[in-house]
Design goal:
Structural class: alpha/beta
Shape: globular
Oligomer: single chain
CATH architecture: 3-Layer(aba) Sandwich
CATH class: Alpha Beta
Number of strands: 7
Helix content: 40-55%
CATH topology: Glycerol-3-phosphate (1)-acyltransferase
Distance between the termini: 25 Å
Low-confidence stretches: none
């Protein structure tokens, strides 16, 4: 919040810009999704989300560098640091996301998540996992890229938390492409772990206002394709985690 007090005009202008982009995205949803031509509804939502993410990232003056082959279908597992992760990955390739159920009830952003076709999971209620797994498999079978954050929560990026395997079941033993990605951020006028990463008991609005006060954010995303097929979701979780840790070690000198 200190950054917002130091740069009130910058924050105010960017908030107005953000409001304008959200209104524009809502308007564009009609021709892009509701009265689409040719593409399926899921594909149309993914393309609409990509366009919106690219536009919103400009508000943060974000510069994103991607390395590796960016996936276009199948399942993508990524580490999770911030709400910016959705904007970053969504801007690079048309995709649908799996998010925790609380996101559905967020003001404004929860509504946009629903418009984007987000699949919501409640990991506290085991009875909800199986129906979501079936839904996830149906989306994957339609050729749409689905992004998972298997850590189940966000962190400050110092390490990658162990992966939860329940939602990886649809990918076990299938021929679907499997990819892993590592997201990292750099902030010239602040501390990434406290001002970009959104974790612990942080409150959304103060965090957002502070982030909007920054000169800009640099992000890097490394992609890696999983080339082996496994027969158990827990083993798949370990492989994906190892793949992301390998990306982290290889990128260490850069950030």
């Amino acid at each position: 919040m200190n950054g917002a007090l130091k740069h009130p005009f910058r924050v105010g202008a960017r908030l107005l810009w953000l409001a304008g982009e959200l209104i524009l995205a809502t308007i564009r949803y009609v021709p892009c999704v509701l009265v689409r031509a040719g593409a399926s509804e899921l594909e149309a939502r993914a393309v609409w989300l990509q366009s919106a993410c690219r536009r919103v990232l400009r508000i943060f003056n974000a510069q994103i560098n991607a390395t590796g082959v960016i996936p276009t279908r199948g399942l993508l597992a990524s580490n999770h640091l911030s709400y910016l992760d959705v904007l970053v990955l969504g801007s690079l390739t048309p995709s649908l996301f799996v998010a925790k159920s609380e996101v559905k009830n967020w003001p404004i952003f929860g509504w946009f998540a629903r418009l984007a076709g987000t699949l919501f999971t409640d990991r506290q209620r085991r009875t909800q996992v199986r129906p979501l797994t079936r839904q996830l498999r149906a989306v994957l079978d339609r050729g749409v890229l689905v992004v998972l954050f298997p850590e189940g929560t966000s962190s400050d990026g110092q390490t990658v938390l162990p992966f939860k395997s329940a939602l990886l079941e649809p990918a076990v033993g299938s021929s679907l492409p499997l990819s892993a990605s590592l997201i990292e951020y750099q902030l010239e006028d602040g501390v990434v772990g406290e001002e970009v990463c959104y974790w612990k008991d942080m409150t959304f609005l103060p965090h957002l206002l502070n982030l909007l006060s920054k000169n800009g954010v640099k992000g890097s995303v490394g992609f890696s394709e999983l080339r082996t097929c496994v027969a158990h979701r827990k083993e798949l979780a370990r492989q994906l985690h190892s793949e992301i840790m390998a990306l982290k070690f290889s990128s260490a000198p850069c950030l």
